[in-house]
Amino acid sequence: MAVSTKPVAILLDADLSRTGNGLDLEIIVSRLSEIDELLEIAVIDDLERNPDQLSYAVAELEPERVILGLPGLRDREPEIQQAAREAGIDQLGIWPVALGVFSCRVSDADERTDHALLSLIGAIARVRNFGGSRQRNLRLERTTDFSLQTLLSLPEIVYRPAPTVRQDRCYAARGCRQCVENCPHNALGIADGQVRLRKQDCASCGICLTACPHDAINFPSAMPAEIHSQVHTLLDEQYAGADARGILFVCPNTMRNLARRNFELAPGWHAIDVPCLGMLTAQWLLAPLRLGAGAVGLVPCITDCRSGRIDLLRQRVSYCQALLRDGWDMPEAVQLAPTGEAGLRSFLNDDIAFAGFAFESEPDNAFDYRERIDVVMDVALADGAGTDWTITHPASPFAMARTTDGCTLCGSCAAACPTNALQIKGDQTSETSLTFDPTHCVVCEACLPACPEPNVLSVSQVTDFGQLEAGRTTLRADTIRRCERCGSKISSDRMMNRIAELLGEEHMGTMNVISRYCTDCRSLAS
Amino acid sequence: MYRVLASAFLFPTPARLAELSMIAGELLEDDVASRFPFYPSWSQLLRQLAHVTDESLAEIGRIYGHIFEEGVPNSGMVLRESHYLAIADQASNSVETELLNRYINAGLSVGAGSPVPADHISVQLEYLSVVCEQEAISWGSGDVLAARRSARVARAFLRKHLCWWMSRMEHHVTRAAPDSWYTTAASTVNDFAHHERDFLNVIIECTEGSRVIESNS
Known about the structure:
The complex is a heterodimer of chains A (526) and B (217).
Chain A: E1 8-13, H1 25-35, E2 39-44, H2 52-61, E3 65-70, H3 77-86, E4 94-98, H4 109-128, E5 138-142, H5 148-153, E6 157-161, E7 164-165, H6 178-182, E8 188-191, E9 194-197, H7 207-211, E10 217-218, H8 224-235, H9 237-240, E11 246-250, H10 252-260, E12 269-273, H11 282-290, E13 295-299, H12 310-328, E14 334-336, H13 341-349, H14 372-380, E15 390-392, E16 400-403, H15 412-416, E17 422-425, E18 431-436, H16 447-450, E19 457-460, E20 462-464, H17 465-470, E21 473-482, E22 489-492, H18 493-503, H19 508-514, H20 519-525
Parallel strand pairs in A: 1-2, 1-3, 3-4, 11-12, 11-13, 13-14
Antiparallel strand pairs in A: 5-6, 7-10, 8-9, 15-20, 16-19, 17-18, 18-21, 21-22
Helix pairs in contact in A: 1-4, 2-3, 4-8, 11-14
Chain B: H1 2-8, H2 14-28, H3 39-50, H4 54-68, H5 81-87, H6 95-105, H7 121-141, H8 144-176, H9 181-206
Helix pairs in contact in B: 1-7, 2-3, 3-9, 7-8, 8-9
């Protein structure tokens, strides 16, 4: 992955030295300056309470991206965004890091400073990979109700990232509906064969981003490259040392909730904020392990989760645990934190039990959809296990399609498949075949209703490592019946037999013509 | 804003630029726009306008000719919606009639001999400024129904016209003169139009039926 050298400013709230157990800001500033000469660092009094100071500081330092090290996460987003705009920088390119809720609560002074430092270095990596936003990628969110009075005086608005679709990559015209069907807010729809977003209904959850199998969604501030660079940096021994590290996925809502309560934290945990935990697929849950993490924790919304994906998230965690249990007997390497106060405190306090696996090479982007097979297989087979095992699980991101003898190779399932997992091959040969590639299947099941034969095609949610390694295999093959007159393909023998069966003996004459001539030649033959 | 942007895409005569420069200086003092995401490009545009010098006048005129008049069969076509409709293989002949009808319905007098066609960016922006003004007057007088009607008219216009083709025009301008003043202007109009459409969506949704909260309640 290319390393960006965008100038970044780090602004630290001076209150951090007094929050929780307190941070030594002098050490943090001095170490950051040693690590990265392109950083501009400033410690500012009352930064969190008074974001106006931000625009002055930024105007002086002239960065492209800004990281705010704050004690908490007060609801100051509109002011922070406004300050960013006034300073001429992208309003989503200003990244608050809640050092107060995490770093300041680490009890050991050295570990506390190391923790804060690493969190900031991770954030630098993330913002340097932020590609910028435009109005199309923003949606308005009211922070208060509108009244006639506020309409005249302009209401307070905060801008959130919104997805846009790269039409040149989107498969909607081929029937793909992954983003539309996965959106929990019904904000996506299809019009004129293209995916359209109704911004008013969007909740910026990012679920469409990870649901898209074609890398067609752009969602600034949570793109795979941004998350990868942050996680990768947090686990980099150069910065993190050799101690076990855990990656804690948290949504902004929960981050704010945690910031209001005092938690003691095991120093190994590092928080990655993602728009909504509902966007975390099995690949995203396993990717930190692939990058060397010893544990992955998820702190779900305690209240007010608008996406309502907690059950699905539980299933995905359960799938990862099944994979980790069967693979290397370490199911607790991916864990959903308890929502109760005592349970959550204990969860965040526990040391990371497992040091993680070491891999010889690293993926360019472990969160990129195209890496999902490698990430899951690498983690599952990390202890040297063979591929001759399977996991049957309702949240398996992989599936196996099967057909019974009743399959006529008509190709309806292949035509309905938006990812080419099912394909009909062999137009130019004497044999035709229906093939299936589990590495392409997204378990959308669009093939099932397309099959005209009852109980012939089935899709089971199973992760079959042998099949994933094998790639495309043939489900059914048959001889092609060709036109006696022009030689073009009529259909498979199986299809002919099925038509004969349906027509019955009284239509043998018709069958005789259909089975010997193609559509074009039938009239000439008769 | 609509009027400044409309004026920015008319031929840059010294008198017009001098007037724009004066207005830009005044608008720079007002930070209301900093509450919106198009502010960075808007303020950059104003700063550039405020510092127009005699020397830069000729350069602006040259760039105007290069971007909007060279390599296109009819001079100025790049600034018109029908140009992009034709590129997209959509019927472009009825757009002017439809727009004239809209303008007349909004109470604008449309002269048959106007040198600027109805689908020109400046005319479309000028029309939106009128609708926006009508909306503001209605909100100010408490006529919620009329205000909402104006908001719907503006939103429909933005959806059907400006938001559709401004992205294309911005692309053209950026390619033709990447670092020019006109790139900033096109980018500002594009961001502003899309924001305005989103903002009107929220306003219309919030003020529908019982959802509007009277200021004295």
